[in-house]
Amino acid sequence: MTVWDSARRAREARLQAGARYAQGKRVERKDATALLEAVMQPGDRVCLEGDNQKQADLLAQALAAVDPGKIHDLHMVQSGVVLPEHLDVFELGIAKRLDYAYSGPQSQRIAKLLFGGKIELGAVHTYLELFARYYVDLTPQVALIAAVSADRDGNLYTGPNTEDTPAIVEATAFKDGVVIAQVNQIVDKLPRVDIPGDWVNFVIESDKPFYVEPLFTRDPAAITETQILTAMLAIKGIYGPYGVQRLNHGIGFNTAAIELLLPTYGERLGLKGKVATHWALNPHPTLIPAIESGWVKQIHSFGSEVGMDDYIRARSDVYFTGPDGSLRSNRAFSQVAGLYACDMFIGSTLQIDLQGNSSTVTADRVAGFGGAPNMGSDARGRRHPSAPWLQAGKEADPDGPAPLRRGRKLVVQIGETFGDKNVPMFVENLDALKLAEKLNLELAPVMVYSDDVTHIVTEEGIANLLLCRDKDEREQAIRGVAGYTDVGRGRDAKMVQRLRERGIIRRPEDLGIDPLDADRRMLAARSIKDLVRWSGGLYDPPSKFRNW
Amino acid sequence: MEKLNYRHVAASRAKGEKHQAVVGVVASGNLEVLVERSLPERECEVDIRTAAEGFGEVWQAVVADFVERRSPGGLKFSINDGGARPDMVALRLAQAARAVEGEQV
User: Fold this and answer.
1) Residue A547: what are its φ and ψ, rounded to 5°?
2) 24-63 in B: which are within 8 Å (CB) of A?
3) Fewer C-beta neighbours within 10 Å, C or N terminus of chain B?
4) Residues 6 or more apart from A351 whose CB is under 8 A from it?
């Protein structure tokens, strides 16, 4: 006779095996590893919560301590490979296969393990794509998650850093998986319920709060004049003319400079209220001056940011907050917002090739992308019009019939022609191709594909790729803003001049911008301390950003 | 330490009468530029001491573009470079020209 509830029965068996370490749902910290050994099976798909911000660090340590004789060949399906333990489990033979989205600090070590064959790589995803697969073919059998607090029934308060938790728990709990949460504390009454208790099987109280990386904090003191110039170009040459109101900013000093120029340079250009009003964005501290100056109407966030919680609480007109007053972030929904409801993504990259493909993967670093490929792509399912979307669509296809013409999302790559240590941003071939060859991957890890990117901004000017009509024009438009890199010096000067006459390349002087005006005095805040002052003392920066 | 020297003919004499100016600082990723009005009207010289070796071609291109854009006739530029990127070099050269032409930096 066919059995139709084998997974449910298996879950019951797992829960029973774990119950000997639990009182109700509560498991002591010292029993964390024993609990994992009891509920897991070799070959399980496991989601260990962790992204570019929050980390289920206690559970990561507990997993790295299981006996590889009992638990091995796990298939890790997780947003971030960030903590040392995330890779220790591969070195120890506890885990074997990996599907992930982001690895910042571990990018060098992950490359070594990939080359050494210790990790069998499924794919490098974008966040939303990985979440989607949790519901189709990568559903976790066990999810190890992090929350701020739990009550006796296992209800969870995930607080400002809710992030990936709802997406992970929903997929696991409703498909016969086991959900184990680490919490900072167990309390009688939660500030609010973010995850209902009957979706959670075990709760472990940690001895310290789960780790959160202040990834989106950029110190204004480190912003250079060249970055300010790129920001001026973007504001005057893209934000203004397209009237971009709904947008997402990637991480980086160029976009931080834009945020800090809105209340100064943007104000002078008369753009307040006309651009940058609605955001899918983490709570960037560098956006505080623009918020305080009345530029920003609404922000939905993927996660929180260390030190911003009191400020957010006091600005509930701007941020999404719960009945308790604190931020409710949700990475899955914010990624959807960035994909479908934003008209522009602007962010940095490490390498751009001659057709405009870009990647953050370099020869010895496999960084992953996080949300950029999702935000930085045109949503082919989009059906609602907006002025910038229609304008971009028209530029790409001026002869098409307007009612049948797709709009286009503005996907802008911004950066200096040379990055850290004089490494050029423009290359003939992406290192991602070499990596794909070396690891035998069917797909090179490209962050933003050439046919999605619409503009490239450097200190040399703006290349509008929507206006290019063929491959050669596109290549010369890119070479034309590549400055003194080999790619830039390899340009056809005459063709670049013609592209400039057609407005495909716009130099600072074509936009009425004198590069000598790119001055740090234009920044609304020139230090972290200035940001604290702008916030009325509500922003509480992490100690590594305090130098007073 | 690499030493480079470029001489160009400029389209016209740099504006102003100021004799010399200094911009920038010698620091990692930055550079100091001393500019002196010491050459015949149409001549321009750029003298470079740099910590980063092997970037001669890039320097040559940056300096040639600078001379074409700003026409700094009569000026000698002495650069102490701490491994600045080309965009920073171009900016400091332009700032130096503006400083000796008498405008505020």
Assistant:
1) -125, 25
2) 52, 55, 57-58, 61-62
3) N
4) A358, A359, A360, A361, A362, A425, A426, A427, A430, A431, A432
Residues A372, A378, A381: CA angle, nearest 5 degrees: 120
Please tell me the distance from the alpha carbon of residue A350 to that of residue A427, in angstroms, as a whole number. Answer: 10
**Backbone torsion region of residue A512, taken as left when φ is above 0, otherwise alpha when ψ lies between -120 and 50, otherwise beta:** left
Alpha carbon of A356 to those of A130, A363, A453: distances in Å? 25, 19, 7
Say which amino acid occupies A270. G
Residue whose pair of structure tokens reads 């170009």 in the numeric block: A233
Interface test with B, best of A422, A425, A426, A484 (most B CBs within 10 A): A484
* ipTM of the complex, rounded to two decimals: 0.89
B53 to chain A: closest CA residue: A422
Q: pTM of the prediction?
A: 0.95
User: How far is it, in rounded angstroms, from Cα A130 to Cα A371?
Assistant: 10
Structural domains of chain A sorted by starting position, each given as residue range(s) with its CATH number in brackets:
25-212 (3.40.1080.10), 220-530 (3.40.1080.10)
Q: Which of A106, A97, A81 is nearest to A365 (CA)?
A: A106
CA distance A345 to A412: 6
Q: Could you report the per-residue pLDDT of A187-222, keeping only the tens digit for each? A: 999 999 999 999 999 999 999 999 999 999 999 999
Q: Which domains does chain B have, with CATH numbers?
A: 2-100 (3.30.230)
User: Three-state DSSP class for A48?
Assistant: strand
- pLDDT digit string, tens, across residues A352-398: 999 999 999 887 888 888 899 999 999 999 999 999 999 999 999 99
Are the C-beta atoms of residues B46 and B6 closer than 8 Å to each other? yes
